[in-house]
Predict the structure of Electron transfer flavoprotein subunit alpha.
Amino acid sequence: MTALVLLEIENGAVRQASRSAVAAASAFGSVDVLVLGAGAEAAARLPGVARVRHAESLSDSIAESASALLASIAAEYTHIISAATANGKNILPRLAGLLDVQPIPDVIAIQDADTFVRPIYAGNALATVRSSDNIKVLTVRGANFDPVASEGGSASIEAIALDTSATIPSVEEISVNLSTSERPELESARVVLSGGRGLKDAANFKLLDPIADKLGAAIGASRAAVDSGFAPNEMQVGQTGKIVAPELYVAVGLSGAIQHLAGMKDSRVIVAINIDPEAPIFRVADYGLVADLFTVLPELEQAL
Ligand SMILES: Cc1cc2nc3c(=O)[nH]c(=O)nc-3n(C[C@H](O)[C@H](O)[C@H](O)COP(=O)(O)OP(=O)(O)OC[C@H]3O[C@@H](n4cnc5c(N)ncnc54)[C@H](O)[C@@H]3O)c2cc1C
């Protein structure tokens, strides 16, 4: 068996979620990786990678091209995998469509080469699914697989001859504007500090910043906070946002709606600060503080 992992490269480094996907893929034997655009050298240094397939002229932000390229080399593999990120969730279902196989999204455990565990019903149940497709197309959740290291390997790099012009739509990437942050990546941060509607406005949302700095935390938000314009979209945690499972999740002024819990309830330790003792977040919290966040946050900052 040979698995192919579609990697995502950010600032010249392989994203942690992709390194987790490589770790997951090692369950299937030999692992090749695919890099679209720059970053093949960083990919070649990943331990456990046999071969880097490289298509420098393509970009993973154009899912039509990326999926067509993947389809053109898919027959060489038993499993095609990516992290369950926005890009992975954009590209792999298209690939599954092109191959006419059933995509298996959000895998959190691999039982054997055909059998996978994934959450369903907003994380309220786990389904164990078995696939009889010749090629399995999976996205895997980074938080559930310890990432391989960034260094230590020396895989060969092989350019893919792009003989797929007939199937790749003539879409060209003009530019990519990524929001940049000094903070850790939300989906792989060790600590996440999330704010909700209880923070009342965008200016107050910034009360989280100094505390996140002290904790080395990524900042997350509830959908209500995002929809109210307190925080940008990419900070949303939950069923329709990002899935996180940090060692410490601190929820400030958010109620803990089921759709929010779907994105964070697997965190190792959950701390909730909420003025309402009946708030559902306290049902999943390991530590709860019933208090006014506007009193507590300055005190917390001071104490830290
Ligand atoms: C299909 C669908 C998908 C969804 N996906 C998501 C998702 O991905 N992520 C997500 O988060 N939501 C999602 N939602 C929305 C979700 O149902 C909730 O509406 C949302 O999570 C509520 O956000 P909140 O907790 O910030 O706001 P609220 O529910 O309004 O909670 C605010 C909390 O702040 C507390 N509070 C107020 N003032 C203070 C104070 N001074 N000090 C301390 N605490 C205070 C209140 O007691 C309250 O508990 C989805 C909904 C649907 C229908």
Remarks:
- DSSP finds ten helices and 17 strands in the chain.
- The mean pLDDT is 94.
